[in-house]
Amino acid sequence: MRILILGGGAIGASTAYFLSRRGAEVVVVERTGIACAASGKSGGFLALDWCDGTPLQALARQSFALHARLAEEIDDDWGYRRMTTYGGLGGWPGDPGPVLDWISDSVALDRRLGTTATTAQVHPGLYTKAMMRAAEANGATLVEGEVESVERAGARWSVAISGQESLAGDAVLVAMGPWSILAARWLPLPPVFGLKGHSLVFDTGAEIPADALFLEVRERSGGAASPEVFPRTDGTTYVCAISSESPLPLDPADVAPDPGAIERLEAICRDISPTLRDATIVARQACHRPVTQDGLPLIGAIVEEPGAFVATGHSVWGILNAPATGEAMTELILDGATKTVDIAAFDPGRARPLDPLELRTVRRDLPA
After folding, report:
1. What pairing do the DSSP bridges indicate for beta strands 107-114 and 280-291?
2. Which strands form 141-144's sheet, in the order they lie side by side?
3. Which is deepest, 49, 269, 307, 312, by most CB within 10 Å?
4. What average pLDDT score do residues 240-251 get?
5. Using an 8 Å Cβ cutoff, are 178 and 198 in contact?
6. What DSSP string describes 150-193?
7. What is the dotted CATH code of the domain comprising 84-115+194-291?
């Protein structure tokens, strides 16, 4: 089979890897660059059991195991390691002193959320690019360009790309994160939205150990925030907080932080850690995480259009669940059903498709 994957994020690259490993002919179409959006600007935090008790439980557990396995099987380095994870409070009256020597006296770590048996991390951008390289080593192809249309002619699919010849394939997979909503012009897809988050990357060297933090802090301005802190194997530390529903631009390259959001996050970081206060900031950034109306991803076949599939809407668990999603989509596309994990809860048919006319009212910036 020849499968056309639209989107070069963690989901698309992971699916390309698993498909190519099965011998399928894979073409990944990416407009801006591999891992150019949330897959390159997220935290890369992995948890074994944080989705337990929800429809995501089996997918998350399978994916957590796959992350460990892929790090051993593929000769590449994307910063995979196990972590200890803490939760705590900062800036509230009466807080005791710190548990870790790199955080401020105003921060109290009052609980351990995960151990090295249950929490881990990857550098998300490096992971996504490594999966794409591994797929290419198996024969996959990357095509850079903007998708202009997707059409079915009999049993085949045609994808038109700006300034290039159209691509033909036996199946097409939409994996464009929040930009998957644009594919509703051609396929019956439920709406997908972008939830914006802001982050900083600090050059901290070897000063911070493999300890992840999930904090609730009171800001000096009187507001509250929930920063997440992830030291990485490359000597950087990633901190994210401050979400918004800012509009999603047509091009991922045009995503920029909201006014004042980065300055606010910098102030939070100065208060929670003297190490972060004194470190050089190497990236100030924002990204849009794909979310759906019911909070569950869209993973499965578009039954109205045989040979069309979608995998998006993973919200904050996109990097965690990328490997198991890619594995499941490979089974669904090549075998007609999944074996490793049940994805029935994520069937895109559970939600009403977005009418193209509705899309025009939401995205007035779309080409006519």
Report:
1. unpaired
2. 141-144, 25-30, 2-6, 171-174, 308-312, 298-301
3. 312
4. 94
5. no
6. EEEETTEEEEEETTSPPEEESEEEE--GGGGGGGGGTS-----E
7. 3.30.9.10
pLDDT digits (tens, 9 = 90+) for 83-141: 999 999 987 765 555 568 899 988 988 889 999 999 999 999 999 999 999 999 999 99
Mean pLDDT of the chain: 94
| Residue 368 scores a pLDDT above 70 | no
- Spell 352-363 as b/e; 16+ CB within 10 A means b: ebbeeeebeeeb
Nearest to 11 by CA among 160, 180, 155: 180
Residue 355 gets which letter from DSSP? P
Of 226, 360, 363, 352, nearest in space to 294 by CA: 352
CATH class of the region 1-80+122-192+293-368: alpha beta
**Which pTM does this prediction carry?**
0.96
Cα separation of the two ends of the chain: 33
Distance in angstroms (rounded) separating the CA atoms of residues 351 and 353: 6
Residue-range domain boundaries for the chain: 1-80+122-192+293-368, 84-115+194-291
For residue 203, count CB atoms less than 10 angstroms from its CB and return exposed for 0-12, middle for 13-18, buried for 19 or more.
Answer: middle
d(CA 216, CA 316): 17
What Å distances lie between residue 239 and 68, 112, 200, 232, CA to CA?
A: 23, 19, 5, 11
Instruction: Please count the other Cβ atoms lying within 10 Å of the Cβ belonging to residue 100.
Output: 16
**Structural contact between residues 175 and 11, judged by C-beta atoms closer than 8 angstroms:** yes
Read off the pLDDT of residues 127-162 as tens digits, 9 standing for 90 and up.
999 999 999 999 999 999 999 999 998 889 999 999
- Residues 6 or more apart whose Cβ sits within 8 Å of residue 21: 138, 330
Domains 1-80+122-192+293-368 and 84-115+194-291 belong to one CATH topology: no
